[in-house]
């Protein structure tokens, strides 16, 4: 009996958990529907709580360099405390709201290279090892995101990579503890002045803040530098404008911006300096200062281990390329 209790404490013969999503595809601002399926173990189990949370891989900068960690950034309780009888089968439905700022992982049915997203289920068991389950989630763009991404392709930009940077962008109303950077190689008509462009969306129920960072080439007497532009669009503007023309205007304004000059562009764009330092660039106030007080989100930060890597290894669904 003592041996059996010891095994139970190590999770042997305990309950199992398997979460099934009705549809793993979603968009910012929508819901993820699913159910948590439980099967009791060899003995009664006191379940303390069941919760689900969205997890993703985030780049974190430190004084020693940069490393990637797994962060749970949105969590919801599915059930409170109850007792699960031996071999009892139980299904608990849930609806998880997807935050508006959730990064995009898939475009045109293909995974953005560098992006990973999962739904983690945690079964907290009294006096025993907690159990968990991980399901892949695909976050597709909203219509306004699609139009802007299409405009970059129409203008000839080539997708390079996407990642998540921990921190807050200076001057932007942001609720998550990280932001997404979608990186492009410069289109031919910009290549004489710009090497690469990074695109960031910070989305809300009203619209999207679009932040552009242009990596400008240096001249004979001038060093290369990064210039920033921030532009705000409404979800209602989706079908009202020529997006290639709008994005071209944003890019020209951002490229030509010096110091605190305010770029003229569609919507109410204005100069932006969200300093952050990777790749050896020195950018304004520096992300160290911006991040210093950044909260780590509802779930309390990084999850140890390479859980996402293990679960989704070799399943990145292809790159977003023309």
Q: Are there runs of 5+ residues with pLDDT below 50, and where?
A: 1-10, 259-322
Quick one: how many beta strands?
19
Sheet with most strands = 6 strands, antiparallel
What proportion of the residues is helical, as a percent range? 10-25%
Q: Please tell me what the overall shape is.
A: elongated
Distance between the terminal alpha carbons, to the nearest Å?
Answer: 63 Å
Computed CA radius of gyration, to the nearest angstrom: 23 Å
- The number of helical runs is 5
Mean pLDDT: 79
Strand content bin = 35-45%
Pairing-aware structural class of the strands and helices? mainly beta
Order of helices and strands: HEEEEEEEEEEEEHEEEEEHEHEH
Describe the 3D structure.
This protein is mostly beta strands and 322 residues long. The protein has helices at residues 2-9, 143-154, 243-255, 287-291, 307-312; strands at residues 16-21, 25-26, 31-39, 45-62, 65-79, 82-84, 89-97, 106-107, 110-111, 117-125, 131-136, 138-139, 158-166, 178-185, 194-203, 207-216, 225-234, 270-271, 302-303. The protein is elongated.
Which helices and strands, and how do they pair?
Elements: H1 2-9, E1 16-21, E2 25-26, E3 31-39, E4 45-62, E5 65-79, E6 82-84, E7 89-97, E8 106-107, E9 110-111, E10 117-125, E11 131-136, E12 138-139, H2 143-154, E13 158-166, E14 178-185, E15 194-203, E16 207-216, E17 225-234, H3 243-255, E18 270-271, H4 287-291, E19 302-303, H5 307-312
Parallel strand pairs: 2-12
Antiparallel strand pairs: 1-3, 3-7, 4-5, 4-6, 4-10, 5-19, 8-9, 10-11, 13-14, 14-15, 15-16, 16-17, 17-18
Helix pairs in contact: 2-3
């Amino acid at each position: 009996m003592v041996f059996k209790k010891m095994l139970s404490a190590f999770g042997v013969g305990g309950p199992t958990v398997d979460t099934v999503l009705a549809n793993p595809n979603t968009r910012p601002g929508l819901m993820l529907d699913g159910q948590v399926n439980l099967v009791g173990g060899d003995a009664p189990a006191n379940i303390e709580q069941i919760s689900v949370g969205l997890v993703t891989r985030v780049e974190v900068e430190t004084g020693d360099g940069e490393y990637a960690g797994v962060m749970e950034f949105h969590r919801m309780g599915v059930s409170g405390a109850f007792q699960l009888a031996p071999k009892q089968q139980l299904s608990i439905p849930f609806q998880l709201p997807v935050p508006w700022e959730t990064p995009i992982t898939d475009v045109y049915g293909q995974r953005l290279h560098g992006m990973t997203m999962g739904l983690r289920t945690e079964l907290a068991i009294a006096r025993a090892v907690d159990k968990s389950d991980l399901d892949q989630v695909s976050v597709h763009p909203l219509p306004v995101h699609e139009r802007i991404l299409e405009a970059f392709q129409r203008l000839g930009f080539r997708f390079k990579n996407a990642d998540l940077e921990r921190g807050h962008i200076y001057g932007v109303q942001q609720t998550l503890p990280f932001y997404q950077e979608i990186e492009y190689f410069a289109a031919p008509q910009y290549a004489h002045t710009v090497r690469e462009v990074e695109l960031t969306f910070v989305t809300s129920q009203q619209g999207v803040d679009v932040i552009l960072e242009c990596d400008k080439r240096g001249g004979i007497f001038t060093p290369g530098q990064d210039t920033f532009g921030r532009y705000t669009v409404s979800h209602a503007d989706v079908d009202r404008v020529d997006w290639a023309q709008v994005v071209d205007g944003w890019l020209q304004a951002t490229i030509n911006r010096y110091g605190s000059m305010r770029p003229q562009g569609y919507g109410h764009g204005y100069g932006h300096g969200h300093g952050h330092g990777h790749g050896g660039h020195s950018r304004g106030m520096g992300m160290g200062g911006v991040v210093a007080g950044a909260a780590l989100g509802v779930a309390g930060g990084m999850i140890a281990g390479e859980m996402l890597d293990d679960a989704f290894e070799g399943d990145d669904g292809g790159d977003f390329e023309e």
